[in-house]
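Reader question, answered in our methods column.
A reader sent in the components of a multi-part assembly and asked whether the whole thing could be modeled at once rather than chain by chain. We filled in our standard form and ran it. Here is what they sent:
COMPLEX SIZE: two components
ENTRIES:
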Amino acid sequence: METLFFLIITLVAIVSAILVTTCKNPINSALALVMTFFCLATYYVMLDAPFMAAVQVMVYAGAIMVLIVFTIMLLNIRVDASKKHSHKVVLGSIIGFFTLVNTAFIVIKGHVASPNGPLTGEMIRQQGHTELIGREMFTNFLLPFEITSILLLVAIVGAVILAKKKI
Amino acid sequence: MGIEILGLPMMYYIAMVAKVIGAFVFVLLTVAYATYAERKIIGHMQVRLGPMRTGWHGLLQPIADGLKLFFKEEIVPSQASTFAFLVAPLIALIPAFITFAVIPFGGVIEVAGYKIPLQIAAYFDTAAGRVYDVNVGVLYILAMSSIGVYGVVLAGWASNSKYSLLGGLRASAQMISYELSAGLAIVSIFMLTGTLSLNEIVNQQSGFGGFEWYVFKQPLAFVLFFICCIAEINRTPFDLPEAETELVSGFCTEYSSMKYAMFFMAEYANMVTVCAITTTLFLGGWNGPLATTIPILGPVYFVAKVYFLIFFCMWLRATVPRYRYDQLMHLGWKVFLPVSLLNIVATGIWNYFIK
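And here is the structure of the entire assembly that came back:
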């Protein structure tokens, strides 16, 4: 049952990922990308990571993509009339092929193939996914967390300075 | 109870389907009669009668409205982006309904020896003796409400009309701004509960005859959250995306027939959902006198509280004039955001030093 569900979701994910690149209308591409994000969120749920799933939908589908759609609307880009075939397709396929080989190699031969740390599925279900992430983030990974927040603060201040002519 | 499908008893599936259909029918009926109630309540507040002609005191008005909209001509503007135009009402309507999956509307009832928690995405674990539900329920609600923005934005863009586009732009800016404050307002609730599961949050609010409700512990968060929610579902006094005096009818100007009706339903369904969420987080959910001993009282209390909040929304609409756009942005970014952040800091200090 779970395998069947996984296959259906994968089909939707792949079809919408293809649609992202083939749609002529940028808004339709953006919608297809949102669909892909939803499929990724479903994977997270199936991997016992509900927090990641909710954040995936909230941050990517809910915030970032809305801003992208907003920008497309403001710039009023209609149907993309540029040439469909160019040398970029060849370059893109070569890069894509090597990325695929690389990923396949890591999945089959790398250390990722059999995770054997303290975080088993059973333990995540018992302690709660959100609790585990929160505890790790505010104890062992406090410094990276704070550095990330300073980075975001710098970005916000930068955006305000760029947007305002007179401060 | 002998039959099992995929490791779960037959009763599980029956209960699940019954709960889904029950919640769906409840929201649909409430939406239909909320339109009637709104016209009637605002009518009486403004010393009018409201609808009187269709049935006894106009009781058949929603059915008449539905039939009228159903038989209207369906027009898709020739210059519209067809796919986005068709899909926008669906995206507006669906998140409003599926949010109900995580809201607990009652305690645990027992049917033929099988214990059923009255919450769609939950089950009763007999071995552990407690209810398990989605443990990120609140985040799920926030995620779904952020998806609802797409419906309005796409409708505004796809219609290829100036009024619609302006409505869509206003809606997206407004919803993004107020989503932030709403999210920050309920962070202070999580700091008190220590959980994101809605079932747990409701359980923690039982006892002391209602004085454990978070509306008493976090009055500021309640006010902030409710106002932000009203702004997020685009109701008066924040209904700028469809301000009829400025933008004809905003993002749904070009829509007709059932597609227009779907936006209308989405607005009311969102109102029901938002009131249900506020009830769950701040007003004790289904808790009330004798609710734990007589399980059937749970849904009754829940519905009563939700209907009171819906009445409050309508009351606001009859009383408060519409905000100007710059006032709206000022209120969202310069008042609500700092106040909700301060509330978080204050709750943190309370948690650390006093509790």
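What stands out: Chain B has a mean pLDDT of 82. The interface with chain A takes residues 6, 81, 83-84, 87, 134-136, 139-140, 142-144, 146-147, 149-150, 153-154, 156-158, 165, 168-169, 172-173, 176, 179, 196 of chain B (CB under 8 Å).
Send us your own complexes using the same form.
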